[in-house]
Write a structure and sequence with these properties.
Layout: H1 3-35, H2 37-43, H3 61-71, E1 76-82, E2 88-94, E3 105-110, E4 116-117, H4 125-135, H5 140-168, H6 182-212, H7 214-223, H8 225-230, H9 245-255, E5 260-265, E6 276-282, E7 292-298, E8 304-307, H10 312-325, H11 330-363
Antiparallel strand pairs: 1-2, 1-5, 2-3, 3-4, 5-6, 6-7, 7-8
Helix pairs in contact: 1-4, 1-5, 1-11, 5-6, 6-10, 6-11
């Protein structure tokens, strides 16, 4: 590689790394406990609720809906969602079908008794860490900013890979010159750990960038892909649903027998039409459970209307979420993710140290 080309790549690597290092260190430090989010919540006892009759008959969705509406007179159903590991149905209601989030009421019901389930105790510190990691408490602007830092991180990784060969061509792979000066030793650690973690860092960096685009991607899908199916009902007034929810779920499940029920959107909401239930399913495996497919069921006749195909960009977003946190392969994969996260913290810290050490040496008389 020509010396001029090396200088260009070195400039790219140095400044992309410096610009994003502080934020990447924050993301790595906050991401470490988030890898074990579920285990930490279980250890802190955030959910101690037990069903009234664990071996009893489960109430139907229509029965649960009737109880929910009785508890909220004058309101209409908006969404019905289902816990994966508890016999619990969550019902969201509001004054009208297009109620904004501030007017919505969320309640959980025990399917074995119809009784209200107390809300899960707040995550406290974990919730704080999650929001800091996700958007810096700035909402969409914060997410997009962290996405830009992720792109710089990817550029730093690529430029580091390009520079690895010319800078290490005279040394065997993995050499650490421990007897040399501290700067030389840390340069070797930086290069070695960077080479070991390069594939993982690229995966986590790219999936992190995709995750920051979750809101724009979802809005685009609702407007374009889902909008094609719902266009003819765009200006219609929402109908009063009369078809059985249980029957609608069975009808939709028959079309997607290998999927599990995720949630139901009632007519008039942003995930359905004025005339349909939007019955959403996801995959059964830890990786595919983030892949969502909606089925439209007529809310008055219970007839199947359409199955919406999931576009590639929504699949990309859905798969990037488990890949980012490594929560699709059990505890062993989470431990591996944590070790690689710690190694990346060392790479970032050593890179900052090397830059400061070089500046001090250049400033010396």
């Amino acid at each position: 590689m020509a010396p001029k080309t090396v200088r260009v790549w070195s400039f790219v690597h140095t400044w992309t790394s410096l610009i994003c290092t502080a934020f990447l260190l924050m993301l790595c430090l906050t991401g470490l406990p988030l890898i074990f989010h579920h285990e930490i919540d279980d250890a802190l006892g955030h959910d101690l609720w037990k069903p009234a009759d664990a071996s009893g008959r489960l109430l139907g969705y229509d029965e649960i809906l009737a109880v929910a509406l009785k508890n909220r007179p004058g309101e209409v159903p908006l969404y019905m969602s289902f816990d994966e590991d508890r016999p619990v149905v969550n019902v969201t209601t509001g004054p009208r079908p297009d109620s904004p989030g501030v007017d919505m009421h969320f309640a959980s019901y025990d399917r074995t008794s119809g009784e209200l389930v107390p809300p899960v105790k707040g995550g406290g510190v974990m919730d704080f860490i999650l929001q800091l990691h996700t958007d810096l408490f700035l909402g969409l602007p914060g997410m997009l900013f962290l996405g830009a830092m992720g792109l710089l991180f990817v550029a730093a990784i690529v430029s580091g890979v390009v520079l690895y060969a010319p800078f290490m061509r005279k040394l065997p792979f993995g050499t650490v010159r421990a007897s040399r000066a501290a700067r030389t030793k840390w340069l070797d650690y930086h290069n070695l750990l960077g080479a070991v973690t390069v594939a993982w860092a690229l995966v986590v960096g790219l999936t992190g960038v995709v995750n920051t685009l979750a809101d724009p991607i979802t809005d685009y899908w609702k407007t374009h892909e889902l909008g094609v199916l719902t266009a003819r009902y765009a200006d219609a007034a929402p109908v009063a649903p009369t078809a059985s929810i249980d029957a609608a779920v069975v009808r939709a499940q028959a079309v997607l027998p290998q999927r599990e029920l995720q949630f139901v959107a009632f007519p008039g909401g942003s995930y359905s039409t004025a005339h349909h239930y939007g019955v959403f399913f996801h995959g059964r495996t830890p990786l595919t459970k983030h892949l969502t497919t909606p089925v439209l069921i007529d809310a008055q006749t219970g007839a199947l209307t359409a199955v919406a195909q999931t576009p590639w960009y929504v699949k990309t977003l859905s798969l990037s979420q488990p890949l980012h946190f490594g929560d699709y392969g059990g505890l062993l994969l989470k431990v591996l993710w944590a070790l690689l996260d710690l190694a990346t913290i060392v790479v970032l810290g050593s890179g900052l140290y090397l830059w400061l050490a070089r500046r001090r040496r250049s400033a010396a008389p």
